[in-house]
Structure formats: structure tokens, C-alpha cells
């Protein structure tokens, strides 16, 4: 009788041990020193593109480190002692560490899309480089997060070469590059889900690519592309045709209000496009250096003649009354040698960077109501980024929070590899800051929220 009880007890213990080993929810290490797994976080509920550093140890790892394998959802993804797991999309993930006939399982869940708030910084990448393509940096101030190469981490593929502009519409994000597939980029126009960055499709057109497209606006199914010889209209399936009267469209970000697209020209005009034609034209005193949306449904326009005759205009967006509502001349330069807007708006405050080519940078703030200009911050102060001496599509302002976003580089050539991205509150305090997170910025884009 005693022997039967003993054997039954042993069987029960073995049964429990087997259950523990096979338990699919086991997030711990095996009970021996043969194989262990340590992670940079104990969390199992994580977010898209969080980096989770996993390390294997134990006698089996020491004896044969090259035989250590990592699997994600049943597919081997890496070999070696260390593995960085980056969950690309919402869903459930099973990560297995395997060494010989022993293995450890970790389970992770991404419950929801990540990119529903915050901002994107689009990066051109080095245009003369034979390796780089465009990249997308994600910034979440509340979470104090700056993540570079977000699109690559989600899709495993590269954006097009020299990305220039993007637009949000139809719960999608549309990203235009100037050189398409060069350097292994995936194409001219990439379309992805806005809340996850999951790729939907890539559109390529060699004829259109040869026109050097630089800027994009999207309204419903209509896609407007500014290129070297004018503004083209097409759809996600192509069919791009030039819009008459846009041949002198400036290499400057366009603005969209309702069903209308606003485009500046090299001969000192502002065009209003609706549908497939130019419906209104407004003459300006100088060439535009920036367009920004006003919170009353109208348009801010900055103009300058190489740093002289600097003006900020308030322009009506009404097709029946397309005119300058108010204009103010300011002393600081509104010259723009980049392709993003030189002015960024928050209410009646206009922020802009005063930066001669490769010279120290300051951010100015012009109050259109009070008609006063003040120095907002001197970026050469050590608390900001004193080594970031070059302004290159660097400034953005969140129109809802008033936070100031800045992506600075040390200089041109290979100096761009020394760079910094940060966000300031309206008082100039640093909210989040991180080195080496941009690559020749193309501009800031704030994620639409409902």
C-alpha cells in the first residue's frame, strides 16, 4: 500500500512538472541552469515597435552559442545569444528561445495601433548616398518617446529614396519620394494605414519620377503631386495628368483646406486649385516662403525677397472672396532655403527659424494680434542643441498643443550624422529629447485626431 501511494505521488509530481514545461503561458526560465532567458522588460503587453532586448544564458548557451535560435510565431528569425524583438503590428506574438531540445517561451500582446496621436518627422536621407533611403521618425511627447525608422520596423521594407512630403487622408498616410526605388527604396508613392503604418500599396511611375515630384496633397480619392513642371492630379491607381496653369508651382509644401489645395508659384502668385483646375489666383508682393493653416479656416502666408521685405499675410480661403485680409511687415528674415513652410502656426502666433545657410539658429515668435516679435529660444544655448548649427526643414509646431518640435543637424556632408530631435513646451522647456533620430529632415506632420 505504501509503495502504491509513493508511486502515485511521484506520478503526480511528474505530471505537474510536465504541465509547467508545456504551459503555453510560461514566461519564466526553465528550472535548471541549462537555459535561461532574460528580457529588458517584464511587461508582456507592449506597443508596436517597442524594442525588447532578449538574452540567452546557461550551460547550453555557453557550450554552443551558435546553436541558439530564436523563433517568432513558429518562424526562426535569428540565431545567437542576443535577439531584439520588435513587434511590428497589433496582435499576439510567441517568442521561443531554443537550444538543442530545450526551449523557453515568452508571449507578448500588442493590443492596439500605436500611431493614433503624436507626430511624424519625415526624413529625406542623404540624397547622394548609395545606401540610405527616406525614413520616418515617430514622436509621442506624452509617452516621452522618439522612435526612428518606424516604417521599416513595421514593414521590413524601405521607403523611397529622398522622401520629400507626406499627407494624411482616408485613414491612410501617403508618402512621396523624389527618386523612388533608388538605393533599395520601395517606390515613388507609398500608401500605408495611418494608425499602424502597415503598407497598403506602392505606386511607381517612371515618367512621373523623372519629373522630380516633391510635394503631395490628398482630398478624397484625388492625389495632387507637385513636380518640376507643375501640379499633377491622379489617384492611387495612377492616371496622373498636369493641371493647366500650375507650371510654375514652387518647390514648397502645399496647403489643403476643405476641397481646395493652395499652391505658391515662382512668379509670386498663390493658386487655389479645386478639382482638376485652378479656380483662383492671388498676386503676392514677393515669393511665398511658407503656407500654414489658420485656426479660423483661412491661410497664413509668409513672403520674402531673400530676407528683405518680410511679410506675414492672412489670406481668405473663400473661392468667392480670395484676397489678403491683413498683412504685417516684420524685421526678422522669413527667407527659406528649404522646402517645408518657414512659418508654423499656433493660434495667432507664428513661429519661424531665423537661419542663414549653415549659421547659428534661433526660433522667433511673432504675435499677429499684438504685432510684436520676440526671440523664443536661441538654439545655441547648451540646454537645447548647441552643436546643431544647421537648419534644414527643422521646425514644426503642433497646432493643438502649441508644442514646438525641432530636428537639428550639425551640418551638411557627413556632419548630418550628428543630429538631435526634441520637443519644447510654449515656455521653451525641453519635454523630450534624443540624439541620432533624424536624417536630413523633410518636415513635421501632426497626426490628425478625431
From TrEMBL:
Gene3D superfamilies: YVTN repeat-like/Quinoprotein amine dehydrogenase. InterPro entries: DUF5074, Quinoprotein_ADH-like_sf, WD40/YVTN_repeat-like_dom_sf. Coiled coil: none annotated. It holds the Pfam family DUF5074. This is DUF5074 domain-containing protein. It comes from Porphyromonas catoniae F0037.
Amino acid at each position: 500500500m505504501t509503495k502504491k501511494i509513493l508511486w502515485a505521488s511521484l506520478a503526480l509530481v511528474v505530471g505537474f512538472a510536465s504541465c509547467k514545461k508545456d504551459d503555453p503561458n510560461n514566461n519564466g526560465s526553465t528550472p535548471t541552469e541549462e537555459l535561461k532567458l532574460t528580457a529588458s522588460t517584464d511587461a508582456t503587453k507592449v506597443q508596436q515597435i517597442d524594442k525588447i532586448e532578449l538574452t540567452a544564458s546557461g550551460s547550453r548557451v555557453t557550450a554552443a552559442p551558435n546553436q541558439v535560435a530564436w523563433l517568432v510565431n513558429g518562424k526562426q528569425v535569428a540565431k545567437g545569444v542576443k535577439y531584439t524583438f520588435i513587434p511590428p503590428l497589433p496582435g499576439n506574438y510567441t517568442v521561443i528561445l531554443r537550444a538543442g531540445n530545450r526551449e523557453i517561451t515568452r508571449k507578448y500582446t500588442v493590443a492596439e495601433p500605436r500611431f493614433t496621436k503624436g507626430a511624424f518627422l519625415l526624413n529625406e536621407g542623404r540624397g547622394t548616398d548609395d545606401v540610405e533611403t527616406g525614413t520616418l521618425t515617430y514622436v509621442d511627447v506624452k509617452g516621452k518617446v522618439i522612435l526612428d525608422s518606424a516604417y521599416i520596423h513595421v514593414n521590413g521594407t524601405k521607403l523611397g529614396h529622398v522622401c520629400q512630403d507626406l499627407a494624411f487622408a482616408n485613414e491612410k498616410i501617403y508618402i512621396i519620394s523624389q527618386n523612388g526605388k533608388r538605393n533599395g527604396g520601395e517606390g515613388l508613392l507609398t500608401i500605408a494605414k495611418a494608425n499602424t503604418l502597415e503598407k497598403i500599396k506602392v505606386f511607381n511611375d517612371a515618367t512621373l519620377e523623372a519629373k522630380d515630384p516633391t510635394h503631395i496633397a490628398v482630398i478624397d480619392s484625388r492625389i495632387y503631386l507637385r513636380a518640376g513642371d507643375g501640379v499633377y492630379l491622379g489617384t492611387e491607381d495612377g492616371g496622373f495628368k498636369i493641371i493647366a496653369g500650375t507650371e510654375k508651382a514652387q518647390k514648397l509644401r502645399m496647403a489643403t483646406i476643405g476641397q481646395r489645395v493652395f499652391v505658391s508659384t515662382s512668379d509670386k502668385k498663390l493658386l487655389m486649385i479645386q478639382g482638376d483646375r485652378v479656380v483662383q489666383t492671388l498676386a503676392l508682393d514677393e515669393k511665398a516662403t511658407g503656407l500654414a493653416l489658420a485656426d479660423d479656416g483661412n491661410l497664413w502666408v509668409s513672403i520674402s525677397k531673400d530676407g528683405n521685405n518680410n511679410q506675414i499675410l492672412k489670406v481668405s480661403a473663400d473661392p468667392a472672396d480670395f484676397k489678403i485680409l491683413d498683412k504685417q511687415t516684420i524685421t526678422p528674415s522669413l527667407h527659406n532655403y528649404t522646402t517645408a513652410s518657414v512659418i508654423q502656426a499656433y493660434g495667432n502666433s507664428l513661429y519661424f527659424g531665423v537661419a542663414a545657410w549653415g549659421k547659428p539658429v534661433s526660433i522667433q515668435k511673432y504675435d499677429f494680434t499684438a504685432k510684436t516679435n520676440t526671440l523664443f529660444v536661441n538654439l545655441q544655448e547648451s540646454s537645447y542643441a548647441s552643436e546643431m548649427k544647421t537648419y534644414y526643414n527643422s521646425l514644426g509646431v503642433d497646432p493643438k498643443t502649441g508644442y514646438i518640435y525641432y530636428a537639428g543637424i550639425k551640418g551638411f556632408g557627413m556632419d548630418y550624422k550628428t543630429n538631435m530631435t526634441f520637443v519644447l513646451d510654449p515656455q521653451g522647456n525641453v519635454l523630450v529629447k534624443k540624439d541620432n533620430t533624424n536624417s536630413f529632415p523633410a518636415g513635421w506632420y501632426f497626426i490628425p485626431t478625431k
